[in-house]
Design brief:
GO molecular function, one term: kinase activity
Helix content: 55-70%
EC number: 2.7.13.3
Distance between the termini: 75 Å
Domain Histidine kinase: 248-458
Largest sheet: 5 strands, mixed
Pfam family, one: HisKA
Catalytic activity: ATP + protein L-histidine = ADP + protein N-phospho-L-histidine
Number of domains: 3
Strand content: 15-25%
Structural class: alpha+beta
Radius of gyration: 50 Å
Number of strands: 12
Strand order of the largest sheet: 2-1-5-4-3
């Protein structure tokens, strides 16, 4: 009970209401004391009227009047004359005087607290204005024991009433909190627990229904989170199934290409000049296709093979990539150019760098071809202080926002319609395996530019 939200709210509400009542109690007891003293002044004034009406009253009647008024003597000032109207023997010296005519609220409070905490009986003088303008001043002397007892009795009743009000208020707030907050929160928690048991089940996604604004916003945020998570889990499942299928296809395709590679070895022995000229290119293409299948299988295992680093001529490798792409351009008006120094040597795995450049150039070619407009693709490279920098730029339409958002994520960053998005994911992983970075430098209506940065390290150690 005490560990629950509603239980703690009940206790805090009771404490705060009691604290508020205590803050109200002090001025209230001061007001009660003032009313008590004014009542004594009024009784004393009424008693003095009997003497003013008849100068000859018996001592017994005078004592009875003073006893009924609850005072020891009465001084009345009339017509600028101060007169002791009624008197009786004083029990002791006057210990304090209180003037109620111009007393401030703070003064009344401090005087009330003093009378309440002082246990011994005292004799005090009280001064006030006569009622109904029956003079200029009235003054009485009285003891404090009756005043203090009356104040204690009043205070106990006020505190008891405050306690009852606090309990009732706290109970009503307890019920309100349970209905408005605790039950909706428990409902949200129940939805979360049910969803956690089977997050793939879309029927378990919460449907916001809270009437409290903050709770409804929390339910809407939870609904959005659960929807995204369910979709992600379904996509992961589909990707896992697709990955298995791709791995099986790549495995079989690799076997077929391996057989084709054996046949090309025999074609190389042909005496036909055209065959001799085309055979090496065919062998290289089939070799790269086999390597691609093996790489796809490695990607399905969530890993790429470590690069086999060696020094190679980047201009020669770039020329091979561009020549292969020219065959695929067909009748499209797309020009390919390179700006790579002829003597530039680069440290890396030539097969993997070939795949990176091929993926980037192929994506650029397909993007330009999809527009039906002429375009240009340029590969440039230069050496910086501690790295090689390669850029692949095109004059295509630029990447759409959705493609930029998931650019290097497999099966999500596809640039063209129907694309898998696997090419860029493989490319960035291959570059990362070289210790480098692949990044999108810019992409707008004037074209797209990718930047490959590969660290040099100690080139002299590469054999």
């Amino acid at each position: 009970m005490l560990n629950s939200l509603s239980g703690r709210f009940l206790i805090l509400t009771t404490v705060f209401v009691m604290l508020a009542e205590v803050l109200i109690f002090v001025p209230s007891i001061a007001r009660f004391r003032e009313d008590y003293l004014l009542a004594r002044l009024e009784r004393a004034q009424i008693a003095s009227l009997a003497l003013l009406a008849d100068d000859m009253i018996s001592p017994e009647l005078e004592a009875e009047l003073l006893d009924n008024a609850g005072v020891f003597n009465v001084v009345l000032r009339r017509d600028e004359v101060r007169q002791l109207v009624l008197s009786s023997p004083m029990p002791g010296e006057i210990s304090a005087s209180y003037d109620l005519r111009d007393a401030s609220a703070w003064q009344l409070i401090t005087d009330a607290v003093e009378d309440l905490v002082t246990v011994e009986n005292r004799t005090i003088r009280v001064i006030g204005n006569p009622f109904r303008d029956a003079g200029q001043l009235i003054e009485v002397t009285m003891d404090t024991i009756g005043l203090r007892m009356a104040m204690i009795d009043y205070g106990v009743r006020i505190l008891l009433l405050s306690a009852v009000i606090s309990i009732i208020t706290a109970f009503l707030l307890f019920l309100a909190v349970r209905v408005l907050l605790v039950k909706p929160i428990k409902r949200v928690v129940g939805h979360m627990q049910a969803y956690a048991a089977a997050p793939e089940d879309a029927h378990r996604i919460i449907n916001p229904s809270a009437k409290v604004k903050e709770l409804r916003e929390a339910e809407q945020a939870l609904q959005s989170l659960q929807t995204q998570l369910t979709q992600a889990l379904k996509q992961k499942e589909r990707l896992a199934q697709l990955g298995g299928a791709v791995a099986r296809v790549s495995h079989d395709l690799r076997n077929i290409l391996t057989s084709a590679q054996l046949f090309t070895d025999r074609i190389e022995m042909s005496e036909d000049p055209a065959v001799k000229r085309m055979a090496p290119k065919l062998v290289n293409s089939i070799t790269r296709a086999v390597s691609l299948c093996e790489g796809t299988l490695a990607f399905g295992r969530a890993e790429e093979p470590a690069p086999r680093l060696a020094l190679f001529n980047l201009a020669s490798l770039t020329g091979e990539v561009l020549e292969a792409e020219r065959l695929a351009i067909g009748e499209a008006e797309i020009s390919l150019s390179e700006d790579v120094p002829a003597s530039m040597m680069l440290r890396g795995d030539p097969e993997q760098i070939y795949r990176v450049l091929s993926n980037l150039i192929r994506n650029a070619r397909q993007a330009i071809a999809a527009t039906g407009q002429p375009g240009e693709i340029n590969v440039a490279a230069h050496v910086e202080d501690s790295s090689w920098l390669i850029t692949v730029a095109d004059t295509g339409p630029g990447l759409p926002p959705k493609a930029r958002e998931h650019l290097f994520q497999p099966f999500q960053g596809g640039v063209r319609k129907g694309g898998s998005g696997l090419g860029l994911a493989i490319a960035v992983e291959l570059v990362r395996g070289h210790g480098g970075t692949l990044s999108l430098k810019n992409s707008d209506g004037s074209g797209t530019c990718f930047e490959i940065r590969l660290p040099m390290g100690d080139v002299g150690q590469i054999k």
